[in-house]
Design goal:
The protein has 22 helices and 23 strands. It starts with 15 loop residues before the first helix and ends with a strand. The strands form 5 sheets. The protein has a 7-stranded parallel beta sheet with strand order 3-4-2-5-6-1-7, with helices on both faces. It has a 7-stranded parallel beta sheet with strand order 10-11-9-12-13-8-14, with helices on both faces. By secondary structure, the protein is α/β, with parallel strands linked by helices.
């Protein structure tokens, strides 16, 4: 436990290259879990940390462990175990970001569903850090392709989640493959007995840290989120500012640099805005807050640290332009509005990869965050017309207009023009800088993208669940339910109003594919909600799938490389002809996609299931499926 209050990362004995990365990123003050975890981890102590997801614990272990790396040694020195592939990717990306100034640093995420060949090549090349799910790490240990003899530190991230998913035995087996003198850091949101037992068996005199999350939000604050997709964040923010009835707004971003950049862009769009960050001297910060209080400013763009203690009654809205790094920061942010019984509005921008943090915030605050529809151009036009009419009403009620009436009467007599025509001309002149009628260019395409992103019926929970299920213990995943093989997947009602395009993919029945596999892969990799995926028809060695028209080029190219049931999709428009099979990807056994035909209605399938012992290292039982055709 630190004896002094840690208010800056520079107070911690981190490596200069790591401190430089922290400064580049714009982090200002360590979170409680970071302030308490970094010193003992730097000292090589084992650590048992209890903290909710979203409290900043990735940086809590990554920053000190990266500071201790031996970059000359190219075998894995740090192993991080995570319960899901999403978290493995997230942690690996964070590690790469924090190590940006470490020369020739390499981190490798390994998880099920990823190309094994790619992982093997990267392991052979040499990596300093491996971040993986227990199942795939055990797979590599069984193959002899992952060496743990040089592991200096093992991190168990979200240990209680690994316990819940049935991975705890695999975790202990992996621990037994590591050197006896290695350092262990175990993080868990809860501490059930099974996790305590693992800690007693494998941690030596650990430092225990418990972070209590202060996550009570104000009931008077309405919380909404917009999923970032299809529209640039700045354009989306501008649309929201157009239609929201606000007095003053505070917009939160992650870095000091972003405060100045966003304030400048909003100023260029006509909004009275200014930055508020830790690089500003105290006098300038106080002046900015005072301008916000007296109405000279309507929008302040701030970092978490700069906005602490900010209490301005005018603030009706808080917009999280960048999602916070932890749940406690979110609560502090939205607490800037909805004070003294007044109503407040909180809007959160969430990218597809940040869905996990959104769920963490909801769990921690015990309050739902409602999805919101991004305002359309028609919405903005209606709002501007409404404001224009209100401006006329206010002027008629409060202003002395006699001088202007004389001018209009004089003009009418001189030109013999009706009052309606004169009023129309004045309205045109009034709105030239801010047109009442917006052009509809690109509107249809934009709205289609937003529909995918903003559908209010559900977030991308299905894709995440699909990923999570694939990462579960094979015994649990294969034996928990009866396999089903529908011949085709009918499009759901929600997608019937979309223009669909039919694509061919090079995976079919003979590869063990089922519609749910195809839906899960496309939904996960394209960020597309499952109900936007149309009809799927399975053939022997290929399938067809209907997807919404207007797929972005980068998504199309990415989907061509996605793997399902051991096959690359090689997505192409369905023209009735097979896709060419690359020589390096050809399958053994003379498989010929061009000869595949749909199963006719005059055959039926009988499925026989028997349990057999797997030859894999875990020795668990799996289901062997035997199918026979018989004529009607």
């Amino acid at each position: 436990m630190p004896t002094e209050i840690i208010s800056q990362f520079s107070q911690l004995a981190l490596a200069p290259a790591i401190l430089k990365a922290i400064d580049d990123i714009g982090y200002e003050t360590p979170s409680p879990i970071q302030a308490e975890s970094i010193p003992p981890l730097l000292a090589g102590r084992d650590l048992l940390g209890q903290a909710q997801t979203g409290t900043g614990k990735t940086a809590a272990f990554a920053l000190p462990l990266l500071s201790r790396l031996d970059l000359e040694l190219t075998t894995p020195q740090i192993l991080v175990l995570t319960p899901t592939r999403e978290l493995a990717i997230q942690v690996a990306e964070a590690m790469q970001k924090y190590a940006r100034h470490l020369p020739n640093f390499h981190v490798l995420p390994i998880y099920g569903g990823q190309d094994m060949g790619l992982q093997l090549r990267q392991l052979k090349r040499g990596v300093h850090v491996v971040v993986g799910t227990p199942g795939r790490v055990l797979d590599h240990l069984g193959r002899g392709t992952l060496r743990l003899d040089q592991i200096a530190t093992l991190v168990l991230d979200e240990a209680d989640e690994m316990l819940r998913m049935g991975f705890i035995d695999d975790v202990e087996e992996i621990l037994n493959h590591t050197p006896s003198e290695r350092q262990v850091a175990l993080f868990s949101a809860t501490m059930p007995d099974a996790i305590r037992q693992v800690a007693r068996r494998h941690l030596k005199d650990p430092v225990e840290i418990r972070i209590q999350a202060k996550t009570v939000t104000v009931a008077s604050i309405t919380q909404r989120y917009w999923q970032v997709s299809g529209v640039h964040k700045l354009d989306a923010l501008t649309r929201i500012l157009e239609v929201e009835d606000f007095d003053a707004i505070i917009i939160f971003v992650r870095t000091k640099t972003a405060t100045a950049e966003l304030a400048e862009k909003l100023e260029a769009r006509g909004y009275a805005s200014a930055p508020l960050n830790g690089d500003m001297n105290q006098s300038l910060r106080e002046k900015t807050v005072e301008r916000l209080k007296n109405g000279a400013l309507d929008i302040v763009i701030a970092t978490d640290v700069a906005a602490r203690g900010l209490n301005v009654e005018r603030i009706t809205h808080v917009i999280n332009y960048d999602i916070p790094t932890d749940t406690e920061a979110y609560v502090h942010r939205i607490g800037r509005t909805g004070r003294a019984g007044r109503k407040g509005e909180a809007i959160l921008f969430v990218s597809p990869r940040e869905q996990r943090m959104l769920r963490d915030i909801e769990r921690a605050t015990r309050q739902p965050i409602t999805p919101m529809q991004l305002p359309s151009h028609e919405d903005i036009t209606d709002k501007r017309i409404s404001q224009f009419k209100q401006a006329i009403t206010d002027a008629l009620a409060a202003e002395e207009l006699g001088f202007f009436e004389d001018i209009i009467n004089s003009y009418q007599q001189e030109h013999d023009i009706g009052l309606n025509e004169i009023a129309s001309a004045l309205a045109f002149l009034f709105q030239r800088e801010r047109p009442l009628l917006l052009p509809k260019v690109e509107e249809k395409h934009s709205r289609e993208k937003e529909t995918i992103a903003d559908d209010s019926s559900r977030r991308t929970r299905a894709p995440r669940n699909s990923r999570q299920k694939e990462e579960r213990d094979p015994r649990e995943a294969r034996e928990s339910r009866e396999p089903r093989e529908p011949r085709e997947r009918k499009p759901r009602q929600e997608s019937s109003n979309e223009d669909m395009v039919r694509y061919r993919i090079e995976v079919g029945r003979t590869h063990g594919a089922q519609p749910k596999h195809i839906v899960g892969a496309i939904a996960n990799e394209a960020g597309l909600e499952s109900h936007h995926i149309g009809q799927i028809k399975l053939y022997d060695t290929y399938s067809t799938v209907d997807l919404p028209e207007g797929m972005p080029k980068d998504v199309f190219q990415h989907l061509q490389k996605v793997w399902v049931c051991g096959q690359q999709l090689r997505l192409v428009l369905d023209t009735g002809t097979p896709a060419p099979v690359p020589a390096s990807k050809g399958k053994s056994g003379g498989e010929r996609a061009s000869s595949s035909k749909p199963r006719t209605a005059k055959t039926s399938t009988t499925t026989e299931k028997t349990r057999v012992k797997s030859s894999g290292s875990s020795g668990h039982e799996t289901l062997r499926i035997k199918r026979t055709k018989k004529a009607d």
